[in-house]
Amino acid sequence: MTDRLIVRRDTYYDSVTLMLASSDAEDVEGVAFAAAVTATPVNLSLIEAQGFDLTGENPGPNDLIVALRASSDDAADAAERAITARLTGPADVATGAPGEIPPRSFRSATRRNTDLNLAFVSVPGRYATVEVAQALDAGLNVFCFSDGLSLSDEAALKKIAVGRDLLLMGADCGTAIVDGVGLGFANAVERGPIGVVGASGTGIQEVTCLLDSAGLGNSHAIGVGGRDLSSVVGGAMTLRGMELLDADESTSAIVVISKPPDASVAARVIEAAARTGKPVVVGFLGPIALEGDTPANVTVVDSLEAAAQEAARLEGGKIEISSLQSEARTPGFVRGLFCGGSLCYEAMNVVAATGRRISSNVPLEPELRLADVESSEGDTFIDFGEDELTEGRAHPMIDPSLRNERLEREGRDPEVGAIVLDVVLGYGAHPDPADDLARVVSEALGRRPDDLTIAVALCGAKRDPQSIDDQAKRLEDAGAYVTRNSAQAARVAVATVATTTERADG
Amino acid sequence: MADRPLLGHRPNVANEGLALFADELAQQGVPVQRIDWRPPAPGSEHALARLALATERITEANDRALARLQAARPLVAGIGRAGDLIEDMDGRTLLHAGPPIEWPDMSGPLRGAIIGAALYEELADTPDEAASRAAAGDFNFVPCHERGAVGPMAGVVSHSMPMWIVANEAAGNRALCTLNEGLGKVLRYGAYDGEVLDRLRWMRDVLAHVLGSALEVLGEPIDLRAMLAHALQMGDEGHNRNRAGTSLLLRELHPALLTSEEPTSDKVEAVRFISGNDHFFLNLVMAAGKATADSASGIGGSSVVVAMARNGTEFGIRLSGTGDEWFTGPAGEIDGLYLAGFGPEDANLDIGDSTITETMGIGGMAMAAAPAIVRFVGGSPQDAIDATRSMYEITWGESEHYQVPSLGFRGTPLGIDARAVVHTGVLPVVNTGIAHREPGIGQVGAGLVDPPMEAFVAATRALADAL
Lengths: 506, 467
Known about the structure:
heterodimer, A: alpha/beta, Gyrase A, domain 2, Rossmann fold, six-stranded parallel sheet, 17 helices, B: alpha+beta, CATH 3.90.1700.10, CATH 3.90.1710.10, five-stranded mixed sheet
């Protein structure tokens, strides 16, 4: 075996291109391990875990690291060539007229094309403030997929957006649907009368997919980013989104979804909801104490599932929640391994309601924060889409390998009785998530057929590019319980380990 | 009303970052403009983020700076002597190109020009004496830019040298530049032998008078903006190629030269001299650039570059929003063609105030107008077009006056935005001549050079600090 470590200073490639380059190199015969990654802490620890010694390299966050392990120098050379070929391959920048130089900034792009109305920003988070500000200055609405902006920058940028009457979706916005066009991670749901404003990407996905399953379409879904309802940002874009949907003729009912915000912001959201002339369902993911009476046109619920059901009811429809039942088996801990933050949160709420205390990197209560995201403690839920795990990496909905590796590990832990997962389909997501996952599920259950349960929340719509029925079947064939929403997957999982609390406490 | 409303309008997207998302939108039939984004220049990230939150103010300031650049109308107002035109210019003051520098740090050609000017002004009798007086601190070195002037290459100006006076009618300011000596062995490239000094004396005693009289006869000031606009349509870019501009100038002066009362032999000599020097017009262009750029300086918050200049050791820039402060980095090595018998090993680093042309939206900015000169770097006409096109990425606007025929008469890129330079990593294209590294030899070639990114990073940081 030969190991090779190459550090290239100040070399930028996007995380998806690097993922493809790594995968090309791993496909070369004789290559045991290959990684071409940005030198972020998560990526460095992955490379060190493979036994590579980074002492003395001191790579910075703008550096590219290539780590290769191959059976021979020739194989390592071939892997290096494969990476170079991918990284220097045909530029994916559309060139327009011959000799046309692609724009290097939003300012340049809008000077060339005055029809542009939306900036999509997915640059590494530490650069995003500059890009968003420039897009707003150029008069563009913004979908900011990038995470890692400071809260004060987000608040300042949203203030600028409000002043210019523009929408700033994000930072860390996963999903939106505008005029039937999916932005980021979005599902191919039918168009219809229900508008959504969500401080939660996968929350929007689950609600729009559940509504779609009941034949109820979407007018627009406006993502605002997970921190829009923080007291610093004050719900700036949630309020703006409600105003826009109120004014939008194709919208007859509005759903607002978010983790529970602080009370003053929640009150502002309810007031704004009351000001719309349309029925509004406010779904806070978890219990919230609200003062005073709820206005007549507003219904407040505490889960994604209930928000979707209530919205369906307003439009005279009904959502069928999977009637899967599981049986209590061996007691054990519940582990949740999620790509979608809100799906994780919704599942935690269900499990916590049974009296379990869940450690997490997105904890329900601050004192439940997991000390080390690599080590589960008791009942543990992990959101692999959190900033700390995505820096310099593709989002787990695109590259679920970290999550799937963790599933393999958790499945071997004899103290674990049930595992809840999500699989999110739609635009932007992995083209075939069941492929690798079904194998890992099947191997895990094969090792422990009698005392391990795996439940999958499969979030998707019938018209999604990945066939939802096919994905469901392959996961079911692998032995997983498959439901169409997170709360139900959590209920199925927790039911199988119903007696664990004593052991966990004892 | 939103600038560009979204709901109810089909998204029309500019994508920056992951190509995956652009692909996804294209699959849905949505028009997508992909942006070729790269991380900003190292060291600029924090400053850019701070400036980003003040974008509105900077936009307003840059709009004002651009409006001044557009409005500038430089006119030839006459010829005078440096000592008469520049207030604190005594006999021992020597102006030079670029940011401030003292003798120990000066490169060969700048030292050569200082020696030459000292001999010309009779401040010393021999080159050695001139050098030792310079080293002893007997001369007062001041950047041209700090006295309302500019000078090509070494840019050395002394008390008795004649200077073009160019007035900017729009803002009421004026700028000065020496008269061009021609190519080869000349003071501005650091040469100082008898031939060089004789020419300087002839320029002072004869050429300046001939031109001054002609201008008086002409009566009407020469409109440099209009002349330059024509020259750009005749294959000049106003920095490394001034053949058309020189011809136009001579054509304009011709009747006045014929009717002025100077001795015919002087006039013949002067016309022969100008006709034999394709760069004669350059110094007028530079004064026009200085008058233009100065009128856009001093606007708080503006990231528009109002000076780029090199002293042969350092490349310095000034921004409209950061006052008189220079931001510098090492002068670059020039990528170019050499005169027979010379090569890269003979070359000095980049030198001269002539980058005022790029600052005013011509020169390298207008490469596409001058396909003939891309041969300096072995390039093709397409390279010239690409060079100009890439400059629109870093300029705040486009000239209303200077146009490029091959780009459909699009205005040249105008108003370099230092913030955009560090943000995109695209450096201004600079055309320049190459001086020999040793004093006393002169020009050895011409080509293109990259300004140092660190000067733009430092300027951007200072602008952020000043907010």
